[in-house]
Amino acid sequence: MSAVRRRMRCAVIPFVFVAMLVTSLAITLVEAPPAEASTRQERKVQRKIAHSVKVARSQLGDPYRYGAAGPNAFDCSGLTSFAYHRAGLALPRTSDAQFRFVRKIPKSKIRRGDLMFFLNGGDVYHVGIFLGRVRGSAYILHAPNSGEVVHRARVWTGQWRAGTVR
Predict the structure, then answer these.
(1) Which of 68, 84, 129, 153 has the lowest tally of Cβ within 10 angstroms?
(2) SS3 state of residue 92
């Protein structure tokens, strides 16, 4: 092998190595966003969910009215969609559409601000916002039915499913 070829080979090998390294780093940066970004997004959604609980709480005492979506009267899904929208979160208007829209989660994973869907024979008939547990009992904020007002209540049945927009 001539001296010229040896020098070219020595010059090309590091160049190819650096080019491969730069390309692999560029692909990694494009394909895998930093972990902080997803955590930052999750925190943003959590703040919005917390805000939706505050919005819903500010409706305490407002009357129930079938088909109402606020700001002075609500049905169950009107309250949840109103609170979520005011907090900057997308949520359909009806309880059935909300149930189809959210990500279903195990009851054990439900967190404050997530939604509780009440079912009868597989059909959703009511929705409320999960507030937490007190001595093992789950509590919701909801607009229950005619003649009542938006209020906090202990969950009355085990026939419910949890859903979240997290």
Answers:
(1) 153
(2) coil
Quick one: what percent of the chain has pLDDT higher than 70?
78
Give CA–CA dist 12/20, Å, rounded. 12
pLDDT category, 14, cuts 50, 70, 90? low
Measured CA to CA, the distance from residue 163 to residue 166 in angstroms comes to: 9
Catalytic residues: 76, 126, 142
Q: Cα dihedral angle (139, 85, 81, 102), rounded to 10 degrees?
A: -80
What is the model's pTM? 0.77
